UniProtKB/TrEMBL annotation:
<comment type="pathway">
    <text>Cofactor biosynthesis; coenzyme A biosynthesis; CoA from (R)-pantothenate: step 5/5.</text>
</comment>
<protein>
    <recommendedName>
        <fullName>Dephospho-CoA kinase</fullName>
        <ecNumber>2.7.1.24</ecNumber>
    </recommendedName>
</protein>
<keyword id="KW-0547">Nucleotide-binding</keyword>
<dbReference type="InterPro" id="IPR001977">
    <property type="entry name" value="Depp_CoAkinase"/>
</dbReference>
<feature type="binding site">
    <location>
        <begin position="12"/>
        <end position="17"/>
    </location>
    <ligand>
        <name>ATP</name>
    </ligand>
</feature>
<keyword id="KW-0173">Coenzyme A biosynthesis</keyword>
<keyword id="KW-0808">Transferase</keyword>
<keyword id="KW-0418">Kinase</keyword>
<dbReference type="InterPro" id="IPR027417">
    <property type="entry name" value="P-loop_NTPase"/>
</dbReference>
<keyword id="KW-0963">Cytoplasm</keyword>
<keyword id="KW-0067">ATP-binding</keyword>
<dbReference type="Pfam" id="PF01121">
    <property type="entry name" value="CoaE"/>
</dbReference>
<dbReference type="GO" id="GO:0004140">
    <property type="term" value="F:dephospho-CoA kinase activity"/>
</dbReference>
<comment type="similarity">
    <text>Belongs to the CoaE family.</text>
</comment>
<comment type="function">
    <text>Catalyzes the phosphorylation of the 3'-hydroxyl group of dephosphocoenzyme A to form coenzyme A.</text>
</comment>
Amino acid sequence: MTLTIGLTGGIASGKSTVSAMMRELGLPVIDADEAARAVVRPGEDAYRQIVAAFGPDILQTNGEIDRAKLGAIVFSDEEERKKLNDIVHPAVRRKMLTEKEALVRSGAKTVVLDIPLLFESGLTAWVDKILVVYVDDDVQLRRLMERNGFTEEEARARIRAQWPLVEKIKQADAVINNNGTREETRRQLLVILEQWDALEK
Ligand SMILES: CC(C)(COP(=O)(O)OP(=O)(O)OC[C@H]1O[C@@H](n2cnc3c(N)ncnc32)[C@H](O)[C@@H]1O)[C@@H](O)C(=O)NCCC(=O)NCCS
Ligand SMILES: Nc1ncnc2c1ncn2[C@@H]1O[C@H](COP(=O)(O)OP(=O)(O)OP(=O)(O)O)[C@@H](O)[C@H]1O
């Protein structure tokens, strides 16, 4: 039996940081953000639907989707965000499930699904264990503004588009507090993976 771990958290809470550590430990990680980028490449169905729904203004001159432009639209208007989610999410789910099935068939002991919207999209039944990467509100805001060069308002709009982190930790099987150093985060991760017997011997 493969153990499926759902890795989640809030925007800029440190999921990618933790998933990189899991990969270093040899665990296979399927990344929803990566899948969401793949399914909207030119030529894909979701790409055509996005251009039809949002108009050619959201394209760059090379024909690819201008993510900054589309982000500015969908994070300032819930209706627009829902429109985008309805196009992208089914394709993301199909891609992730296909990749997961292949790993299960190949006999993987553990599979990690890195899904920022695990709770919001109602996907908790997909996983055996939920691991939430937590940071305090002020740390989240600061790291998001620094990483993306967002104004405070832009960063807050993105944070508001997700469940509050305090709600997510209530439903977690384990929580990593990522307010501290990366080394402190790594130590917490190792304890949890040990408890869950997730690593290959
Ligand atoms: C709006 C888009 C074009 C902005 O792209 P951008 O490169 O700036 O951001 P990126 O995709 O790297 O996402 C960064 C983070 O934003 C958050 N986020 C992204 N989309 C959403 C959403 N629809 N609702 C809430 N939070 C979201 C997640 O925490 C994600 O980790 C892009 O995020 C997108 O296509 N979103 C819709 C698909 C989606 O929901 N992806 C998230 C996981 S499936
Ligand atoms: N323990 C830490 N100490 C200092 N900086 C950190 C720490 N963990 C993460 N960061 C930084 O905070 C930012 C957000 O982290 P990361 O990209 O891992 O978050 P994420 O949850 O994957 O974000 P997203 O939801 O946008 O994909 C990054 O710039 C990262 O380098």
